[in-house]
């Protein structure tokens, strides 16, 4: 084989060619959409980065997010996408099978390097957005400010830091309500508002009493689910995360497994190899008593190598544990 032929067929060149094909495909899909009714200006690189994040290519997704940060250093979007990529790594790392359910369960623990990096990115998103709002208030920057605070809340919630979560949640709500006041068509604002409404309404009676005396606004679970549905069907940035959280909430709190399965189905249609989505779908199928269907999902998760190596290893371990609970160990 000649040197020229060897280079042309090398794994690196093949990977680069594959990446360009993915980029062009997603770019074409993005261009084919109708122009959104909202005022969001999302570069194609951002859309591709989000696609790669869920498709198990976090390194390429981060590279594109950082390109956005370099080209637009005062704009929050690149930092928000990088924070989301890191969040899914953290979520996967801390996922466990507890209460016969696979999730990243909240518990007190010290911060680690990933936590610090994710919080720093979330804080940068809010800082840049609020600086822009101080110059000229726009729905776009109110959205980013709200999503930045929501990113902070989700991580602190995983560490069970109640008061900081409440403060971040209230700030997120304030910005996202203002966003919709300025632009009612900004569907992505419904992710943070939906999560706030849902989870505040699921608090225990004692927690609700404390919330009242602390002046924290109340929520409405039914409204929250409708808002998550809006974000999952009309959002430009938050569709997958909204759908994931809707399915997870219906499973964990409402125990409406049939509706949870319907919510989770589009996740696997879009990203059939995502191990986090496969574990969620398998877990819901198991709760429905569909053990054969659950086993299919868990075996796919056990075979998946998508994502970073630590996430893949933990997902494979959780899948094997779930299969053993079904009596279908590999």
Overall description:
With 330 residues, the chain is mostly helical. It folds into two domains: 25-254, Serine Threonine Protein Phosphatase 5, Tetratricopeptide repeat, CATH 1.25.40; 257-330. The protein is 74% helix and 2% strand. The protein has 16 helices and two strands. It has helices spanning 3-8, 11-32, 44-54, 58-71, 77-93, 113-135, 139-158, 162-182, 189-201, 205-214, 221-234, 239-254, 257-270, 275-287, 291-303, 309-325; strands spanning 96-98, 101-103. The chain has a two-stranded antiparallel ribbon. A hairpin with a 2-residue loop joins strand 1 and strand 2 (101-103). Helix 2 crosses helix 3 and helix 13 (257-270) runs antiparallel to helix 14 (275-287). The longest helix has 23 residues, at 113-135. It is globular. The relative contact order is 0.09. The model is unreliable at 1-15 and 24-36 (pLDDT under 50).
CATH class descriptor name of the largest domain: Mainly Alpha
Mean pLDDT: 88
- Tell me the strand percentage band: under 5%
The CATH topology annotation of the largest domain reads as Serine Threonine Protein Phosphatase 5, Tetratricopeptide repeat
The main β sheet shows up as: 2 strands, antiparallel
Total domain units: 2
Report the radius of gyration as a whole number of Å: 20 Å
Which spans of ≥5 residues are poorly predicted at pLDDT below 50? 1-15, 24-36
Number of strands: 2
Helical segment tally?
Answer: 16
Overall geometric form: globular
What is the percent of helical residues?
A: over 70%
Please report the distance between the alpha carbons of the first and last residues: 41 Å
């Amino acid at each position: 084989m000649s040197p020229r032929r060897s280079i042309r067929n090398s794994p690196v060149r093949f990977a680069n060619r594959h990446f360009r094909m993915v980029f062009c495909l997603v770019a074409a899909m993005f261009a084919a959409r109708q122009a959104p009714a909202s005022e969001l200006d999302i570069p194609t690189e951002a859309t591709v980065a989000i696609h790669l994040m869920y498709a198990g290519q976090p390194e390429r997704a981060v590279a594109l997010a950082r390109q956005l940060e370099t080209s637009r250093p005062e704009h929050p979007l690149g930092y928000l996408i990088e924070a989301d990529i890191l969040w899914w790594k953290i979520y996967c790392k801390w996922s466990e099978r507890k209460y016969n359910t696979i999730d990243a369960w909240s518990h007190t623990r010290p911060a680690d390097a990933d936590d610090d990096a994710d919080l720093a990115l979330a804080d940068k998103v809010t800082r840049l957005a609020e600086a822009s709002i101080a110059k000229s208030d726009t729905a776009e920057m109110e959205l980013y400010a709200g999503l930045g605070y929501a990113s902070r809340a989700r991580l602190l919630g995983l560490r069970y830091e109640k008061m900081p979560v409440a403060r971040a949640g209230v700030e997120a709500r304030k910005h996202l309500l203002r966003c919709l006041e300025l632009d009612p068509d900004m569907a992505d604002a419904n992710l943070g508002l939906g999560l706030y409404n849902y989870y505040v309404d699921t608090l225990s009676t004692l927690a609700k009493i404390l919330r009242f005396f602390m002046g924290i606004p109340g929520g409405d679970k039914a409204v929250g689910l409708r808002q998550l549905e809006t974000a999952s069907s009309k959002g430009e940035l938050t569709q997958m995360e909204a759908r994931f959280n809707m399915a997870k909430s219906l499973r964990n709190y409402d125990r409406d497994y049939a509706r949870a399965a319907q919510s989770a189905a589009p996740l696997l249609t879009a990203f059939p190899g995502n191990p986090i989505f496969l574990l969620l779908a398998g877990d819901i199928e198991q709760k429905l008593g569909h053990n054969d269907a659950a086993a299919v999902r868990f075996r796919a998760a056990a075979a998946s190598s998508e994502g970073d190596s630590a996430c893949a290893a933990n997902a494979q371990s959780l899948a094997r544990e779930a299969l053993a609970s079904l009596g279908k160990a590999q």
